């Protein structure tokens, strides 16, 4: 079965993926920041039973993974694959992850909130991702009875998540707008509209390979459908700006040279660091989107971006940095040498 990140979806030239996350908490027990270790273990078991009872109505079965059974590399790989937050893997005892085989559906237990339901999809699929997350939410709520207030909505540890508890985000590839130096201004304008533009791995992270997360900030006083519609509308405007900027850049000889040099290096290098790979693959992806490179698919690029991350490459055992960079170069050459659109 293909993972969600091994495919491309609607608006794939700019939108890598869609994520919808719902924050939920159980009633009558403290929020995670105030929980004892025993309470964490009890909560983990309660949620595990709820998920098991919900399997019949789930689109995809969820595998149970106690976080304290994972190696450090396996935990970091979850962050690289956008399945867990960096904070979630720092204190693993009493935390757990439920994950579908294709990694599109997951449930984090014991992060900032008791339960965080997440759906990932390729391309721009906000409505479909929300429907899938909502169906899982309804199924779990049958037995967990999530904490809800008629005035405040779903109760969460952080006040910014009160209301719907919804965080929806799109992973956007914005190399042309980044090159034009306008993303700072755009980010400032977005904050006035209840949206935020963050780095590749969310809050506090830098953009790697010109990959940015665009997400909603407001969850109180706004219906889920309104928040999703607002995010999609603003995203479409940013996408049009990016496409126009790409078309202009693609006409410049120096940009064409940078794109084709990047492709040449990726197809011939014997050693590739993660940083250089992300820089080069970003240029190649722009070349694909502008028609300069016709023989490489977005599927191939997206798969490489995930599979060549450091911890993900080392899940079967640690590899010295030099060997890891050589293996990355080998994987990239094999993929780009025979990739078909």
The profile of the biggest β sheet is: 8 strands, antiparallel
**Roughly how many Å apart are the termini?**
20 Å
Rg, nearest Å: 21 Å
> What structural category characterises the helix and strand content?
alpha+beta
Secondary-structure element series: EHEHEEEHEEEHHEEHHHHHH
Number of helical segments with 4 or more residues: 11
Output mean pLDDT.
92
Helix content: 40-55%
Low-confidence stretches: none
The order of strands across the largest sheet is 2-3-4-5-1-8-10-9
Shape: globular
Fold blueprint:
Elements: E1 15-24, H1 37-54, E2 62-66, H2 72-80, E3 96-100, E4 105-109, E5 115-122, H3 126-144, E6 148-149, E7 153-154, E8 166-173, H4 175-179, H5 183-191, E9 195-198, E10 211-216, H6 224-249, H7 253-268, H8 274-289, H9 298-307, H10 310-313, H11 321-338
Antiparallel strand pairs: 1-5, 1-8, 2-3, 3-4, 4-5, 6-7, 8-10, 9-10
Helix pairs in contact: 1-3, 7-8
Gist of the model:
This protein is of the alpha+beta class and 341 residues long.
Walk me through what this model shows:
- This protein has eleven helices and ten strands.
- The protein is α+β, with helices and mostly antiparallel strands.
- An eight-stranded antiparallel β-sheet has the order 2-3-4-5-1-8-10-9, with helices on one face. A two-stranded antiparallel ribbon has the order 6-7.
- Strand 4 (105-109) and strand 5 (115-122) form a beta hairpin.
- The protein starts with 14 loop residues before the first strand and ends with a helix.
- The mean pLDDT is 92.
Q: Which terms would index this structure?
A:
341 residues; alpha+beta; 8-stranded antiparallel β-sheet; 11 helices; 10 strands; 16% strand; globular
